[in-house]
Write a structure and sequence with these properties.
This protein has 134 residues and is mainly α. 56% of the residues lie in helices and 7% in strands. It has a domain at 75-134.
């Protein structure tokens, strides 16, 4: 059995120092400079034209991701092994994204053969899918 629970986690001194320092106002020049340098670094590393930083929950992150993917106008595949995958499926349905679903137990999800078979059924051959990811 695999245990995915967190902690206890050591907190680095730099993190403690940052958490106890004076917060930056979102209107300050320092905050604007930090935002611009962060988005520029993400664009460079991800080879993206634009990057936006949003504060919110994982649900918001999924909604934004699905909205962006829907702009591709292509059929996709959602691999689900539990509650979060099922939520992603519902979110994609609400945004009317075209996709297939492959569901499994959490234990099966970590078996490469299951992923390869699911991807092959949903998107063609696994090797073609893997090549597109590179």
């Amino acid at each position: 059995m695999i245990n995915f629970t967190t902690g206890p986690v050591a907190i680095l001194p730099a993190v403690t120092q940052a958490l106890t320092s004076e917060p930056l106002s979102h209107r300050s020049q320092a905050c604007q400079n930090l935002y611009q340098s962060t988005t520029a670094a993400i664009c460079e590393k991800m080879h993206a034209r634009n990057t936006y930083i949003m504060t919110g929950s994982g649900t918001l992150a999924n909604e934004v991701m699905i909205a962006q993917i829907s702009q591709l106008g292509k059929h996709g595949l959602i691999l689900s092994n539990g509650e979060f995958g099922n939520r992603l499926i519902e979110q994609a349905r609400r945004q009317q994204v075209s996709f297939d679903v492959a569901k499994c137990t959490p234990q099966l999800f970590f078996m490469p053969a299951w992923k390869e078979q699911s991807i092959a059924r949903g998107l063609g051959s696994y090797s073609q899918w893997h090549q597109k990811r590179k």
